[in-house]
């Protein structure tokens, strides 16, 4: 990756981190337990080949524009359609963050003769985050139109998460996800996902978290409970 900064302008190129959900992921802060909503349910990729431009207009508002390969870092193509994204982030108050983001992923019509069944994919997302002392709470809404370029196969969902910092390097957290599709076309993957637990930061490199999860699958109406013990090692 190449990065160039000048004043309030930042340009990046190469294999770069995408801007689609980086704010949500940073606010959630527990990727080692579960990825943020859009990453977890494949609304987009966390990295891709492309270029991005970020500009800080003032202390409380900045924008980002990105052009990507559109296939994610696992499939670095240059012959298909590109993905274009625009985000606006504002902090009207010290502890409050608001963000909207939209992207369009082109579909290469030459790949099929059934052009009426395939369209470009559109992603729209809204995020609100609030932090006060030891408390943080975030909420996001995500909408994906023409999933995998399939016409009128749309997916959407919400994610709400919170954490409270306690004494002695402990914090408690909870998260709720609701993912669904229009006309139940992807009912097999539609779900509600709940997560809660405790995290202990042994030091700045190691974290450990016992946590409990409940997944409710829409297709069979069955609740699946799980208990996890996760650890994170950072260098």
CATH fold call: Porin
The CATH architecture classification is: Beta Barrel
How far the N terminus sits from the C terminus, by CA atoms, comes to 20 Å
Our estimate of the beta-strand percent is over 45%
Classification by helices and strands: mainly beta
- Our count of domains comes out at 1
Which sheet architecture does the biggest sheet show? Answer: 13 strands, antiparallel
Low-confidence stretches: none
Tell how many strands the DSSP assignment holds: 13
Strand ordering within the main sheet? 1-2-3-4-5-6-7-8-9-10-11-12-13
What is the percent of helical residues?
under 10%
Mean pLDDT: 91
Name the shape in a single word: globular
Oligomer: single chain
The rounded Rg comes to 19 Å
Tell me the name of the CATH class.
Mainly Beta
Task: Count up the helices.
Answer: 2
Order of helices and strands: EEHHEEEEEEEEEEE
If you had to describe this structure to a student in words, what would you say it looks like?
This protein is mostly beta strands and 235 residues long. The chain has a single domain (2-233), classed as Porin (Beta Barrel), CATH 2.40.160.10. 5% of the residues lie in helices and 57% in strands. The protein has a 13-stranded antiparallel beta sheet with strand order 1-2-3-4-5-6-7-8-9-10-11-12-13, with helices on one face. The protein is globular. The protein starts with a strand and ends with a strand.
């Amino acid at each position: 990756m190449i990065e160039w900064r000048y004043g309030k302008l930042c340009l990046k190129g190469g294999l770069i981190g995408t801007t689609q959900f980086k704010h949500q992921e940073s606010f959630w802060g527990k990727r080692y337990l579960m990825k943020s909503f859009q990453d977890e349910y494949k609304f987009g990729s966390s990295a891709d080949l492309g270029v991005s431009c970020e500009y800080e207009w003032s202390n409380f508002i900045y924008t980002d524009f990105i052009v990507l390969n559109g296939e994610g870092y696992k499939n670095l193509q240059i012959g298909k359609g590109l993905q274009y994204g625009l985000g606006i982030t504002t902090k009207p108050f010290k502890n409050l963050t608001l963000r909207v983001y939209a992207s369009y992923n082109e579909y290469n019509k030459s790949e099929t003769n059934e052009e009426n069944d395939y369209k470009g994919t559109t992603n729209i997302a809204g995020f609100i985050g609030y932090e006060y002392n030891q408390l943080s709470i975030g909420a996001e809404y995500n909408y994906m139109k023409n999933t995998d370029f399939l016409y009128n196969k749309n997916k959407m969902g919400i994610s709400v998460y919170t954490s409270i910092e306690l004494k002695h390097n402990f914090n408690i957290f909870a998260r709720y996800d609701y993912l669904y599709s229009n006309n139940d076309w992807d009912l097999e993957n539609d779900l509600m996902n709940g997560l809660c637990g405790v995290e202990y930061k042994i030091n700045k490199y190691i974290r450990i978290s016992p946590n409990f999860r409940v997944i409710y699958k829409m297709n069979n109406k069955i609740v699946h409970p799980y208990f996890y013990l996760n650890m994170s090692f950072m260098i």
